[in-house]
């Protein structure tokens, strides 16, 4: 097996990725990596993360994991898109400039539609408007520029649908009424999830490293409880744990300490490594696969490509409820954890639909 090493990061040429592109513009300070995992279902679609990685190796690891996750997410969301992701290395509060974003846009444009970008951690709709000044392959733009705007609204709605499905499967009713839900991270998506849960009659307890994020929630909803950190939340007496910050939330230390019976949150790549899904299963904790329940945002930005209609997109996102239940049923039938069942469904769709691209159509190369 051939491997390539970049700044200490080793990744296999047989990891499954179609393409990994390193982008650098010294004058603007741009250092970015674009990962395209698969285009079997169509052009790769996924957001751009702007984050101060400690090393290029960490950035590579993140973009590889995130782009693969997007392929599976888009497949199970029923979209005609493959999976891609990009990371910009730097502090968005310090390093983000118009010149840097436009330079990044030109690199995305150079891929000629193989990758379509959107917002992610550290990037916003206004940033996509700037990127779009140099690039046609951008979604997640502001309404003023013909876009759908903030995708976190439908992302939170989708997570809530996944949580309802988990409650139905475990407790026999699709509601969180009377249940205590712990949310780690009440930023872009988490604070919208708080709204859905309170409207449904749940009790909510939160934590976040950003005091302003906590203050925003507490100002509007003083009944929401706050704990000091994620470790305290994991050990708190809760029915549902919702990781809504960065990945790797479920690891060898977290899973044994969890009191919750359901894990369902908005964060990407929640399982720190292979085998965590089995640990959750062995402890009797129902895991709603992250890339299934958090796909509301990508459903929205995919809808925008064809002319955004909020109600149409919301109806598609509501389908996350049925998809999540389908995964739980398959997991039970095949005797595997839900994460494994979700992967199987996604891989099956990529293989079956991707195969059709081998059928010749007149006028196509």
TrEMBL record:
SUPFAM superfamilies in the record: Aminoacid dehydrogenase-like, N-terminal domain, NAD(P)-binding Rossmann-fold domains
Pathway note: Amino-acid degradation; L-valine degradation
Residues annotated as signal peptide: none
GO biological process: L-valine catabolic process
TM segment ranges: none
Active-site residue numbers: 85 (proton donor/acceptor)
Residues that, per the record, bind NAD(+): 185-190
Subcellular localization, as worded in the UniProt entry: Cytoplasm
Main location: cytoplasm
Keyword Nucleotide-binding part of the UniProt annotation: yes
Keyword line: Branched-chain amino acid catabolism, NAD, Nucleotide-binding, Oxidoreductase
CDD domains with a match to the protein in the record: NAD_bind_Leu_Phe_Val_DH
Matches recorded under Gene3D superfamilies: Leucine Dehydrogenase, chain A, domain 1 (3.40.50.10860), NAD(P)-binding Rossmann-like Domain (3.40.50.720)
Domain Glutamate/phenylalanine/leucine/valine/L-tryptophan dehydrogenase C-terminal: 149-358
GO molecular function: nucleotide binding; valine dehydrogenase (NAD+) activity
InterPro entries: Aminoacid_DH-like_N_sf (IPR046346), Glu/Leu/Phe/Val/Trp_DH (IPR006095), Glu/Leu/Phe/Val/Trp_DH_C (IPR006096), Glu/Leu/Phe/Val/Trp_DH_dimer (IPR006097), Glu/Leu/Phe/Val_DH_AS (IPR033524), Glu/Phe/Leu/Val/Trp_DH_bac/arc (IPR016211), NAD(P)-bd_dom_sf (IPR036291)
Any Pfam family: ELFV_dehydrog_N
Record EC number: 1.4.1.23
Domain of life: Bacteria
Name the UniProt record assigns to this protein: Valine dehydrogenase
Keyword Oxidoreductase: yes
Species of the source: Carbonactinospora thermoautotrophica
Similarity field: Belongs to the Glu/Leu/Phe/Val dehydrogenases family.
Enzymatic reactions: L-valine + NAD(+) + H2O = 3-methyl-2-oxobutanoate + NH4(+) + NADH + H(+)
Subunit structure: Homodimer.
């Amino acid at each position: 097996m051939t491997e390539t090493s970049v700044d200490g990061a080793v990744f296999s040429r047989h990891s499954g990725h179609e393409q990994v592109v390193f982008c650098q513009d010294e004058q603007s300070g741009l250092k970015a990596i674009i990962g395209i995992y698969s285009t079997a279902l169509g052009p790769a679609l996924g957001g751009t993360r702007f984050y101060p990685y400690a090393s290029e190796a960490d950035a590579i690891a993140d973009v590889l994991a995130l782009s693969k996750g997007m392929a599976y997410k888009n497949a199970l969301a029923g979209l005609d898109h493959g999976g891609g992701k990009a990371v910009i290395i730097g502090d968005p509060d310090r390093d983000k400039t118009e010149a840097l974003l436009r330079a990044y846009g030109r690199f995305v444009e150079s891929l000629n539609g193989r990758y379509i970008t959107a917002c992610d951690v550290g990037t916003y709709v206004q940033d996509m408007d700037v990127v779009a000044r140099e690039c046609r392959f951008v979604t997640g733009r502001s309404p003023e520029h013909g876009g759908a705007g903030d995708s976190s609204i439908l992302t939170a709605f989708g997570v809530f649908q996944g949580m309802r499905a988990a409650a139905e499967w475990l407790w026999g009713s699709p509601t969180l009424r009377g249940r205590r839900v712990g949310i780690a991270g009440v930023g872009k998506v988490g604070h919208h999830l708080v709204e859905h849960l309170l409207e449904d009659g749940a009790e909510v307890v939160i934590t976040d490293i950003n005091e302003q994020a906590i203050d925003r929630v507490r100002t509007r909803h003083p009944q929401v409880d706050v704990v000091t950190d994620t470790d305290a939340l994991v050990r708190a007496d809760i029915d549902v744990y919702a990781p809504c910050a960065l990945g790797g939330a479920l690891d060898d230390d977290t899973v044994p300490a969890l009191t919750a019976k359901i894990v369902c949150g908005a964060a990407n790549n929640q399982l720190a490594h292979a085998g965590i899904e089995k640990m959750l299963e062995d402890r009797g904790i129902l895991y709603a696969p992250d890339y299934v329940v958090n796909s509301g945002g990508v459903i929205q930005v995919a809808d925008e490509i064809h002319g955004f209609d909020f109600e149409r997109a919301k109806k598609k996102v509501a389908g996350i409820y049925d998809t999540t239940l389908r995964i739980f049923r398959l997991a039970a039938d095949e005797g595997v954890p839900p994460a494994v069942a979700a992967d199987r469904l996604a891989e099956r769709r990529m293989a079956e639909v991707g195969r059709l691209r081998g059928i010749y159509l007149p006028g196509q190369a």
